[in-house]
Amino acid sequence: MTDKSDQRDWVLTSEFEPTELLSGVHLVPTQGNGLAVETERGIVVVDGGPGGPVTQQMIAHVRAITDGPVRAIAYSHGHLGYNSGVGEWQQHLADAGMPPADLIAHRNCIARYDRYRRTHDLQVWLASWQFPKASRKALEGSLTLTDPSTVFDTEFVLDDPQRPIQLRWSPSETDDSIAVWLPEQKVLWGGPTVISGFPNIGTPFRTLRLTQRWIDSLEALIALDAEILVPEFGPLTVGAADVRERLTTTADALRWLIEETTERMNRGMSDVEIIHDLTYPSEWADHAYLVPDYGNPDYVVRDIFREQNGWWTSRNITDLHPATPDAAALAVLSAVDPATVLRRAEELIGSGEHQLALHVLDLLAGAPGDADYLVTARKLKGDCAESLARACPTFVSRSIYFGAARLHRAGLRRMSEAPEGPSAIN
């Protein structure tokens, strides 16, 4: 078994030290690979960072480039943390006696921020499972939301005789994602549309990402014929042919998933049946652009399925109008022999079949009560979760597994029993 747990911390970090990519075009570390572009009217920064030390360091990096005004801060997208530090930028400018930066985002960011405010506690809870190492304070801080002052629909151009900057709507991970295009330098900052591995579609806790829309955004970026591509995370790609290959490879993989998933949906298969029926192309296995380190093709299948189907993805009538979780668990418990269940689960664990062991343990682990066999079932479920986490290449699944290990080892049965998230479980 390969231990993947040491890969947990790369996700929200930049690939680079601050550096001048081309004259007047700078890579600046933020929550990912940030961009700062010098113009005659002041510097333009892409994303203000998560606040605190990261944003303060970003400000210091920009001040090493110029002590002039910050003309604008462009929001790459409205996800939590990417622009939580905007207020610190504005305060820095005020302290320096400079006018505030124009805050530019796609129009859909306004609705997203409104939704996040309405569902504040939900957003913190979801983030606590996706990023279980983060403290509650840090997660709360990521919900520091500053509305943009300028919004656009399709394209917004920041004029400059040397380095005009095009902000282009590029819906992908979110419906307010943008890419940044410098036509004179042929530099493309891909934003959330371009990450280091497999596209982040279908993440378990998030809303639909719309696979065909992501393909359309990639096609629009391919048409630019960029010579340098800076992804949101991971190493940049240099050379027009290599940039085209990178973007095209991703688009082609997503097209394949749409075609193969649709063919199986047309045969009446459920999402789980489709996942286990697919054989992914062998060339994906070691492809640098298709590494399932954050996104995962199984996630994409489920997102495509949800686009075309309702919430009843299992196609199992037991799930159509289910009993309460406790009532169902007690009914199952009344029909099984706990000793036999535990013995079989331990056999599966011993042979490395941790996923199958989870299915068996669910016959006991969800039932209310503190009988020894129930406590043992929950502990074993936690052990299975940790084993799956350590073998899993995909960050989000790995995080959920680690959180679930903590949950079940504490004797809890389901996530709703941990309203503060896994990091708060004693």
Architecture blueprint of SSEs:
Elements: E1 19-22, E2 25-30, E3 32-39, E4 42-46, H1 52-65, E5 70-74, H2 86-95, E6 102-106, H3 108-118, H4 120-130, H5 136-142, E7 150-152, E8 155-158, E9 165-169, E10 178-182, E11 187-191, H6 211-222, E12 228-231, E13 237-238, H7 240-265, H8 271-277, H9 297-308, H10 325-334, H11 338-350, H12 354-365, H13 372-391, H14 395-409
Parallel strand pairs: 4-5, 5-6, 6-7, 11-12
Antiparallel strand pairs: 1-2, 2-3, 3-4, 8-9, 9-10, 10-11, 12-13
Detailed description of the structure:
- By secondary structure, the protein is an alpha/beta fold.
- Among the domains are: 5-192, 4-Layer Sandwich (Metallo-beta-lactamase, Chain A); 323-424, Alpha Horseshoe (Serine Threonine Protein Phosphatase 5, Tetratricopeptide repeat), CATH 1.25.40.880.
- Helices cover 42% and strands 14% of the residues.
- The chain has helices spanning 52-65, 86-95, 108-118, 120-130, 136-142, 211-222, 240-265, 271-277, 297-308, 325-334, 338-350, 354-365, 372-391, 395-409; strands spanning 19-22, 25-30, 32-39, 42-46, 70-74, 102-106, 150-152, 155-158, 165-169, 178-182, 187-191, 228-231, 237-238.
- The strands form 2 sheets. A 7-stranded mixed β-sheet has the order 1-2-3-4-5-6-7, with helices on one face. Strands 8-9-10-11-12-13 form a 6-stranded mixed β-sheet, covered by helices on one side.
- The two termini are 28 Å apart.
Low-confidence stretches are: 1-10
The main pleated sheet reads as: 7 strands, mixed
Tell me the distance between the termini. Answer: 28 Å
Tell me the radius of gyration: 24 Å
Question: Which percent bin holds the helix content?
Answer: 40-55%
Q: What does the overall shape look like?
A: globular
Order of helices and strands: EEEEHEHEHHHEEEEEHEEHHHHHHHH
Approximate strand percentage: 5-15%
Q: Report the strand count.
A: 13
Please report the first level of CATH classification, the CATH class of the domain at 5-192. Answer: Alpha Beta
Average of per-residue pLDDT values: 94
In spatial order, strands of the major sheet run 1-2-3-4-5-6-7
CATH architecture of the domain at 5-192: 4-Layer Sandwich
Q: Helix- and strand-based class?
A: alpha/beta
The CATH topology of the domain at 5-192: Metallo-beta-lactamase, Chain A
Task: Write out the CATH superfamily name of the domain at 5-192.
Answer: Ribonuclease Z/Hydroxyacylglutathione hydrolase-like
